Structure formats: C-alpha cells, structure tokens
Amino acid sequence: MRVGTLEVDLHLPVSHSLKDKRSILNHVKDRVRSRFNAAIADVGPQDLWQRASLGVAVVGAESAVLERVLREVLAAIEQEDRLAVLDYQIQVD
After folding, report:
1. CATH architecture group of domain 2-92
2. Which residues contact 5 (CB under 8 A, 6 or more apart)?
3. Of 55, 62, 59, nearest to 10 (Cα)?
C-alpha cells in the first residue's frame, strides 16, 4: 500500500472575510472529494482571510498512479478562478 500527499498553499484575492474564504474552500474541497475520492482538509492558517493551505491524501497500490491522481487534483484546484496556487508539494511514500 502506498500513500500520496499533496499540500497546496493558496492565495484568495477575492476573499474579504473568513466567510468568503470558507465558501471558496468548501467549494474546492467538495469538488475534489466527489471527483477524486480523496481526503482533503484545510490545514493552513485559520485566521487569515486571503491565505490557505489544503492537504490532500490518496491511497493506492502504485506510486505512479498516485502521482498522476495528485497532479490531476492540483490541476482541478488551479481551475478555480477565485484563488491562485502559490506553492505545492507532492509526496508519495
């Protein structure tokens, strides 16, 4: 069994409150969960309106498959026009 993780640092320029931030992140998290069946959580600063970090985890048998899935998750997150990806890290163990 292999575990793949993705940590994505985000900037949310259109967010003007914690409510805006939560709305954007919930939308992204719901899309990732339903499309990729991946675990995803907000793991970053909770009190900053325009910054966030998402952690994504997937489990599988082959490292190459996990890497591909995590890159697809990253691409799906980047499609959200209300945020910008500042940095990301993919790790497969």
Report:
1. 2-Layer Sandwich (3.30)
2. 55, 56, 57, 70, 90, 91, 92
3. 55
Place of tokens 């954007």: 24
For residue 24, what pLDDT is reported? 97
Two structure tokens written together for 14: 């259109």
Q: Taking the domains of the chain in order of start, what are their residue ranges? A: 2-92
Q: What H or E segment, with its residue span, contains residue 11? A: strand 2-11
Question: Region 23-40: what's the mean pLDDT?
Answer: 97
User: In the predicted model, what is the mean pLDDT of residues 79-92?
Assistant: 97
Amino acid at 19: K
> 43 φ, ψ to 5°?
-115, 10
Which is nearest to 6 in space by CA: 39, 28, 52? 39
